[in-house]
Amino acid sequence: MGQEALMRRWGEDLAGQPYGTCVTAAIRPVLERWMRRKRKPLTFRLTQILPGHGCLGDYLCRTAQREPTTECHDCGAAMDSAQHTLEVCPRWAALRQSLTSVLGGDLSLPSIIIAMLGDDESWKAMVSFCEIVMSQKEAEERVREEAADVASIRGRRMGVRRRRYLMRLQ
User: Fold this and answer.
1) What are 118-144's pLDDT values in tens digits?
2) Which of 157, 145, 107, 152 is closest to 129 using CA atoms?
3) Whole-number pLDDT of residue 137
4) C-alpha to C-alpha distance for 116 and 169, rounded to whole angstroms
């Protein structure tokens, strides 16, 4: 099977996936360019923003079930999603302005993907935005987790490594 046929088949397979439909819809039209990108790594925090995972109220409430609501801790909006963070939340206005000066005014996922594939500067601008925003959101999430009056839903997860560590301390 040639590369072109493989790309076509992969694109068709992606279309039938039940999860990640927004990211899939944004990448499918440019899948071949996405796969052939050079010197444009996917960072941890970029892969949180693109599909809307990580320290975002929507994800923490609906998927991780670690927040009681989808509310934005920064501005009080009813839904803290990746798109809210990218386009609306006033806390990130200065960073957003820097981002739009490079990517342009349209911060929809398809437009971001196309801009990122267009040149290294756009890719780096998006990565920088994601690194700054998500690292700050993660730090604030840790503070909320460690709070003495933390609700049980917000309690720190006990992964295997953490349980082993705590057992060694006893």
Assistant:
1) 999 999 999 999 999 999 999 999 898
2) 107
3) 96
4) 47
Q: For the chain, how long is the longest CA-to-CA vector? A: 59
- Averaged pLDDT for residues 103-120: 95
- Mean per-residue pLDDT over the chain, rounded: 87
pTM: 0.81
- Find all residues with CB under 8 Å of 123, minimum gap 6, and list them: 37, 40, 116, 117
What angle do the packed helices 109-118 and 93-103 form, to 10 degrees? Answer: 60
Distance between CA atoms of 36 and 99, rounded to whole angstroms?
Answer: 24
Cβ 137 vs Cβ 54: under 8 Å: yes
Please enumerate in sequence order all residues whose Cβ is within 8 A of that of 60, keeping only pairs 6 or more positions apart, or say none.
66, 67, 141
DSSP state letters, the chain: --HHHHHHHHHHHHHT-SS-HHHHHHHGGGHHHHHH--S-PPPTTHHHHTTT-SS-HHIIIIIS--SSS---TTT--S---HHHHHHT-GGGHHHHHHHHHHH-S--SHHHHHHHHHH-HHHHHHHHHHHHHHHHHHHHHHHHHHH-TT--GGGSPP--HHHHHHHHHH-
